[in-house]
Amino acid sequence: MDDIIRQPRRIDPNRRQRIIDACLDVIAERGVAGASHRVIAAAADVPLGSMTYYFTGLGDLLHQAFDQYAQQCIDRFAERMAHATTADEACDAIVEHITGNDLLSSQRDLNINLEFYTLAARNHDYRDISERWMAASRAQIERYFDARTAMLLDAMIEGVTLHRALGGVPSDLAVVRDGIRRIAQV
User: Fold this and answer.
1) CA torsion sign, 164 to 170 to 176 to 179?
2) With a threshold of 0.90, does the pTM exceed it?
3) What's the DSSP call for residue 11?
């Protein structure tokens, strides 16, 4: 036993996060259908066995990756809304959120968003993420507007973003601002 040379254990405190990041990259590039333990492990440059060490299965990994992505989006919107002190400023912040780079900063973000919508529509195991995301968005908006208006504004954010992403609505600030102000009645 003494003559066996043991390799030192590789210390990799960021491995779990690297796997989640690689999972999101794979989803952006190949879609959820193209995501597998093997593909994600290769993208993360980790041993395949690491996948089951950190996650109970592919569903758990997808859930944690989408949950983290949603939290980043929630935080971005909260930061945008934090600067508003009036309903009028909140409308401007929502317009900037829709037309700026908060939601569609890259093709990667667009693909992840669309893959998440599709997965959550088909698999109720992911609805907790979408419900938390929508509730957080509405909570930010409800700081300035009643619950019904907040729900409508949140739906407009989602709808205009999807239309913009898929080519249906121009990112004309005036058009988006007019729509937000009509709903908000400011």
Assistant:
1) negative
2) no
3) P
